[in-house]
C-alpha cells in the first residue's frame, strides 16, 4: 500500500514502533499530490518545504519521546479556517488577500498535537455553494469521476480525502458543507455537536469537523480539536483529560473525548473497532439527561463487543418533504443501510418529513439578505468580481421586507424544534445525505438556478440549526460508479455514537485511481 493511503491510527502505530518516519510519509503524500492535483484541484497554499520541515521536527519528537496525539500525521484544513501567515480568500476573487494573524482554534489544536498541516483546501464562492465553483480557486473535481463535482463547500477537503492526500482533512459546515461533499466523495464527514470544536468566528449553525476515510480517524481528529476557546463564545467547556502515556495508546473513547490531549501526552496509536460500545443505552441515557454522553468515553468501552445494536431506536427518513426528489438509487441504498442496522438489533421506524418548505425558504431569505449586506459593503470593483450566480441570488434581497427577514431568521429555531421532537423518541436518525449523486462539476448548484440554490440541503441543514451531531457513511455506489452516502444524526454530545453507527455501514473498497 502507498504510504499516502495509511490511516492516522496506522501511521501513529508505525511511528511508535519506528517502522515509518513522518518524513517518509509526507514525501509520499506530496508525491500523490503532484500526481493527482493537476486533475482535481483540491489544494490552496500548498507548502512542501514547510511540510518537510514540520515532519523533520515530528521525527525528532518521536525520537525524544515527546510526540503529541497526531504527531507527524499529514493534515489539511479548509481555506476559511485561518492559519497564521496565509490569506483567507473565502473562495472568491473579491476578497483582499491579507495574511491571517493567527491560527484559528482548530488549526492551533492540530499543530499543538504535532499534526503536519501541509496545505489548505479549496472552497467555492463565499462557501455558499455545494460545488467547487470559485472565482479564486480552480474548479475542484470529484476523484471518482472528474466530470462531477466534489461537492461543497468543503470541496477540496472531500476531494483530498478521497484522493488519498493523507488521512485527515478539516472542513466547515453551515448547512451540509462537510457532509454533502463527504457523501459525494465516499468518505466520512462529521459535523460535530455545535460548540464542541471552537470555530473562532461563530455564526448560527456553523461547525468545524473532520473528513476522513475511516470513522476511527474521524474520532481521533475530533478528540484532538475538541475544546473551549475564548475566541468562540459558543464553544463548550473542556473536561480534563487524564494523561495517556501508554505506548500502545488507549482505546479511542476510553478517556474523556471532550477535550484535546495535553501536548506530548498522548500516543493514540490504535483503538478497538468503533461500534463496540454500549450505543443504544448510552444514547438513550444522554438524550434523557443521563450520564451516557460520550464526553466521558462510555460509548466505546467494549461492553458491546459483539457489535449488537439491540434496542437502538433509529428513525428512517427517506423523504425530506422539500427540495429535489430523491433518486431511486439513493432510496434503495439508504433502505439497505437500514436493513444492516436492523440485522444488528436496531429498531427501524420510518418517519415523515422533519422540515417544511416554509422553513427552507425562510432560511434562504435570511441567508440571502445576510450575503447581500456583505457584498454591498464591498467597493464596486470588488463587487464585480463576485461569481455571477451569487450576485444574481442576492439581487432579489432588496425586495425582502423586515417581516420576511424576521420570519426567515425564526426558521432556524423552527427546524431545531422539529429535530428535537424526533429525538424525544429516537436514538438516531438515518437518512440520505443528499437526494442525488454528484452533479456536473461546472454547475454552481444542482438545479443550475440561482433562484433555487438550496433544493438539495433539506436532509443536512436541520442539524446545523438544532446543533445535533451528524456524520456520513458511504453505503453504496450508483449504477455509474458514484458514491452514495448515508447520514446518521444523533442526540447532542453523542458524536461518537454517530461514528460508531457509521462504522457498521461504511464501505470503501478500492479508492479512485485518478
Biggest sheet descriptor:
11 strands, mixed
Radius of gyration: 21 Å
Category from helices, strands and their pairing: alpha/beta
Compute the separation of the termini in Å. 16 Å
Q: Which percent range describes the beta-strand content?
A: 5-15%
Number of helices: 15
What does it look like?
The chain starts with 7 loop residues before the first helix and ends in a 9-residue tail after the last helix. The chain is an alpha/beta fold and 514 residues long. The chain has helices spanning 8-16, 22-40, 48-64, 105-112, 155-163, 179-185, 215-225, 279-287, 328-343, 357-376, 380-383, 388-395, 402-423, 461-466, 495-505; strands at 43-44, 74-78, 116-121, 141-142, 145-149, 168-173, 188-191, 207-212, 313-316, 347-350, 428-432, 470-477, 483-489. α10 packs across α13. The chain has a domain at 7-236: Amidase signature (AS) enzymes, CATH 3.90.1300.10. The chain is globular, with a radius of gyration of 21 Å. Keywords: Ligase, Transferase. Residues 243-294 have a biased composition (Low complexity). It comes from Kribbella solani.
In short:
With 514 residues, the chain is an alpha/beta fold. It has helices spanning 8-16, 22-40, 48-64, 105-112, 155-163, 179-185, 215-225, 279-287, 328-343, 357-376, 380-383, 388-395, 402-423, 461-466, 495-505; strands at 43-44, 74-78, 116-121, 141-142, 145-149, 168-173, 188-191, 207-212, 313-316, 347-350, 428-432, 470-477, 483-489. The chain has a domain at 7-236: Amidase signature (AS) enzymes.
Amino acid at each position: 500500500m502507498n504510504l499516502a493511503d495509511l490511516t492516522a491510527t496506522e501511521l501513529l502505530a508505525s511511528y511508535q514502533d519506528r517502522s515509518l518516519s513522518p518524513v517518509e510519509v509526507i514525501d509520499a503524500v506530496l508525491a500523490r499530490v503532484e500526481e493527482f492535483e493537476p486533475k482535481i484541484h483540491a489544494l490552496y497554499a500548498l507548502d512542501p518545504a514547510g511540510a518537510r520541515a514540520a515532519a523533520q521536527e515530528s521525527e525528532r519528537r518521536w525520537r525524544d519521546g515527546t510526540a503529541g496525539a497526531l504527531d507527524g500525521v499529514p493534515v489539511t484544513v479548509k481555506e476559511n479556517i485561518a492559519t497564521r501567515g496565509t490569506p483567507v480568500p473565502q473562495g472568491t476573487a473579491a476578497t483582499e488577500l491579507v495574511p491571517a494573524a493567527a491560527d484559528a482554534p482548530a488549526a492551533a489544536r492540530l499543530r499543538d498535537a504535532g499534526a503536519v498541516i501541509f496545505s489548505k483546501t479549496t472552497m467555492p464562492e463565499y462557501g455558499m455553494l455545494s460545488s467547487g465553483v470559485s472565482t479564486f480557486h480552480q474548479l475542484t473535481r470529484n476523484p471518482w469521476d472528474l466530470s462531477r463535482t466534489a461537492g461543497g463547500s468543503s470541496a477540496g477537503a472531500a476531494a483530498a480525502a478521497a484522493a488519498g492526500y493523507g488521512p485527515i482533512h478539516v472542513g466547515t459546515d453551515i448547512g451540509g458543507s462537510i457532509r454533502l461533499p463527504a457523501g459525494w466523495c465516499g468518505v466520512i464527514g462529521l459535523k460535530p455537536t455545535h460548540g464542541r470544536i471552537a470555530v473562532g468566528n461563530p455564526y448560527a449553525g456553523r461547525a468545524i469537523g473532520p473528513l476522513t476515510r475511516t470513522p476511527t480517524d474521524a474520532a481521533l481528529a475530533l478528540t484532538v480539536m475538541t475544546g473551549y476557546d475564548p475566541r468562540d463564545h459558543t464553544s463548550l467547556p473542556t473536561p480534563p483529560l487524564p494523561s495517556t502515556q501508554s505506548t500502545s495508546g488507549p482505546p479511542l473513547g476510553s478517556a474523556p473525548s471532550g477535550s484535546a490531549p495535553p501536548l506530548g501526552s498522548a500516543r493514540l496509536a490504535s483503538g478497538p473497532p468503533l461500534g463496540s460500545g454500549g450505543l443504544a443505552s448510552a444514547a438513550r441515557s444522554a438524550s434523557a439527561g443521563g450520564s451516557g454522553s460520550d464526553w466521558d468515553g462510555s460509548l466505546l468501552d467494549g461492553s458491546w463487543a459483539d457489535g449488537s445494536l439491540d434496542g437502538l431506536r433509529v428513525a428512517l427518513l427517506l423523504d425530506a418533504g422539500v427540495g429535489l426528489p430523491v433518486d431511486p438509487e439513493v432510496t434503495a441504498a439508504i433502505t439497505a443501510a437500514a436493513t444492516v442496522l436492523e440485522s444488528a438489533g436496531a429498531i427501524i421506524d420510518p418517519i415523515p418529513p422533519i422540515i417544511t418548505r416554509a422553513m427552507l425558504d425562510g432560511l434562504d431569505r435570511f441567508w440571502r439578505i445576510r450575503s447581500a449586506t456583505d457584498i454591498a459593503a464591498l467597493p464596486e470593483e470588488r463587487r464585480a468580481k463576485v461569481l455571477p450566480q451569487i450576485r444574481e441570488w442576492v439581487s432579489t434581497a432588496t425586495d425582502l421586507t423586515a417581516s420576511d427577514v424576521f420570519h426567515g431568521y425564526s426558521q432556524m429555531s423552527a427546524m431545531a424544534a422539529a429535530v428535537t421532537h424526533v429525538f424525544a423518541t429516537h436514538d438516531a436518525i438515518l437518512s440520505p445525505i443528499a437526494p442525488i449523486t454528484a452533479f456536473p462539476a461546472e454547475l454552481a448548484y444542482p438545479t443550475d438556478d440561482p433562484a433555487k440554490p438550496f433544493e438539495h440541503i433539506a436532509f443536512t441543514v436541520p442539524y446545523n440549526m438544532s446543533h445535533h451531531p451528524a456524520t456520513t457513511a458511504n453505503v453504496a455506489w450508483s449504477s455509474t460508479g458514484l458514491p452514495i452516502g448515508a447520514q446518521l444524526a444523533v442526540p447532542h454530545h453523542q458524536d461518537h455514537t454517530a461514528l460508531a453507527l457509521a462504522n457498521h455501514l461504511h464501505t470503501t473498497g478500492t479508492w479512485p485511481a485518478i
